[in-house]
Amino acid sequence: MPEAVTMPEAVSPTPARTHPRASGGRSTAGRSRLGEVARYVILTVALLFFVGPVLLILSASLRSSVEVAMDPLGWPTNPSLDSYKAAWDAGQFSDFALNTVIYTVTSCVGVVICGTLAGYGFARLRFAGNGLLLSIIILGMIVPLQAYMIPLYFQLLRLGLLGTYWAVILPSIAMGVPFATFLMRAFFLNLPNELAEAARLDGCGHWRIFRHIMLPLAAPAVATLIIVQSVTTWNAYLLPLLAAPEGGKQPLALGLQFFQGEFNTDRALISAATMITSIPMIILVIVFQRRFISGLTAGAVRG
Amino acid sequence: MGTSSSEVPTLVGRRTPKGDVRRSDRLTGLAFVAPGLILYGAFVLYPLIQSVYVSFTSWDGVSPTKPFVGLDNYRAMFHDDLFWTSLKHNITWLVVATFVPIVLGLFLAVLASGARRFRTVYRVGFFLPFILAPSAVTAIWSWIYDPTIGVLNNALEAIGLGDLTQGWLGDPNIALYCVAFCGLWAGTGFSFVVFMAALQDVDPETRDAAVVDGAGPFRLFWHITMPQLRHSIRFLVLLSLIFGFAAFELVFLLTGGGPGNSTELLGTYAYRVAFQFGHVGYGTALTTVMAVLALVCSVVYLQFQKWQDRNA
């Protein structure tokens, strides 16, 4: 990619430029009515295709197991949360939920610490091999876990971490470091230099500049990082499959699979369990959709 | 890999403001990057390197020694029908579950970005499947595809198309397409939002000028919009190549590679070889080949793009 890597909007310290929409009244003037109808028909069909399956399990989760078995496509006429309660009690779901929260919170803390430090280091300091180290870390953004899952498992085994929370937490942080470094470095690069210079003249060292000036300014980028990392860790399946397959340390995403094996035909119960697993991240992403999406696509649009 | 090597020179070029270099910075700099670097080194980089080494051994995962066997694993792979079958399935997967979503995402983004209403509804709606855990996606689709209590067969019966009912995931001829379709469902939202973001940046004045010059919607799209989506397309194709070869979860959860290996991918095959059959050496050889294929395809693709840019 020949162009210089430009600021992703997600981490821009200044408010994002607002573009006049390409779809303003003028440019739509020439469109035919038929074209407009076709546009909305296609978009509505697509919406049904993408949202329909989720609505299907939402509906099933609010009905009783018997109702769902008799008519899977029926409407919830007497919606109730009984299936949620049953799923929560039946499948150790409360344990899985607690584990998921532990994994998500700790990996967010770890990634924020490692990412802000490394981002600052690479953006504002020169040291031997910094270019090479940065390339090596950024490389991690495009190396899938599948490429090293087998040795990772045996390494966790050898270190005696299997069966502990650390077996999921440490690799989760490690896998989040490349994106965190990339994002935070881009942010710190684009901060104006005057503040840090002034502090330096007052005799502040890098640690104090980082801690008291840079970090507070970095709040928006840190928020983006936390959202992306939360969704990643919450939904992770392969890592816990390797690192915490049993022993009560499974997160929801993994527990859901065992739950399905156990209650295989009770679709109301499985739907409720699926909703329990998914709802927190659905809410998070809907509330913070712009931030999440701009974080995910950072570097994709113009970089 | 590809992106990083070409990106980094520009990244580093505008790094530190002049006069900011001091001797003490060297140690301080290392101290700042150390926590991330150590964790990354220990749990990503080291296993990755280890992976290459183990692929030259016949290690079983249990014995304390790892007998070195040179290229034996790679030679065995060449004669292993299941390897070739899996590779073929990965290519199918690449097309159905990663390239089709790029095209579909682009198509929907062009439609949605021109819509005057409900843009947020479309964005959230199309993106929704992407934020579900793989096990949640398969919990939904295993029910849809179920041959007896399944939603799909029941719906087909209900609208009088009973002849079209299938075993879906149980039918070796279509199982792979069914799983890949579920990948398409889950993945399209991502390319959709990438294109939506890129389309916001398309310069409206160039557009309007072209409209005034009498460009129709197709020419407008091809000559004005498409060139500005270059980066997004490149980014998505690269991710597709990498994660298309690495695909694992949906197949593992929905069919486990079956029925009769009809949905086996390199990732699921390697997982079984290493963790169920105990051929750890051969399993890592499979994942190494997977990673190398993704790398080679990415580099070839980037070179092709460069060549295209030069000739544009």
Overview of the molecule:
The complex is a heterodimer of chains A (303) and B (312). Chain A is mostly helical and 303 residues long. Chain A has 15 helices and no strands. Chain A has helices spanning 25-28, 33-61, 65-70, 82-90, 93-124, 130-139, 149-158, 166-190, 194-201, 206-217, 219-235, 238-243, 252-262, 267-287, 289-296. Chain B has 312 residues and is mainly α. Chain B is 72% helix and 0% strand. Chain B has 14 helices and no strands. Chain B has helices at residues 2-13, 23-54, 72-78, 81-113, 119-127, 134-145, 151-158, 175-200, 204-212, 217-228, 230-245, 249-254, 266-275, 280-311. In chain B, helix 4 runs parallel beside helix 8 (175-200), helix 5 (119-127) packs antiparallel against helix 8 (175-200) and helix 11 runs antiparallel to helix 14 (280-311). Chain B starts with a helix and ends with a helix. Residues 1-21 of chain B have low confidence and may be disordered. Chains A and B meet through helix 1, helix 2, helix 5, helix 6 and helix 7 of A and helix 1, helix 2, helix 4, helix 5 and helix 6 of B.
Q: SSE order of chain A, as H and E? A: HHHHHHHHHHHHHHH
Largest interface: A-B, 123 and 125 residues
Average pLDDT over all residues of chain A: 84
How many E strands of chain A?
A: 0
Helix segment tally of chain A: 15
Radius of gyration of chain A: 24 Å
Gyration radius over CA of chain B: 24 Å
Could you name the ranges of chain B where pLDDT drops below 50 across 5 or more consecutive residues? Answer: 1-21
- The shape of chain A is globular
Kindly report how far apart the N and C termini of chain B lie.
25 Å
Proportion of strand residues of chain B? under 5%
- The rounded distance between the terminal residues' Cα atoms of chain A is 7 Å
Order of helices and strands of chain B: HHHHHHHHHHHHHH
Query: How many β strands of chain B by DSSP?
Result: 0
What fraction, in percent, of the residue positions of chain A are helical?
Answer: 55-70%
Arithmetic mean pLDDT of chain B: 86
Q: Helicity level of chain B, as a percent range?
A: over 70%
* Poorly predicted residue ranges of chain A: 1-30
Derived structural class of chain B: mainly alpha
Overall, the morphology of chain B is globular
* SS class of chain A: mainly alpha
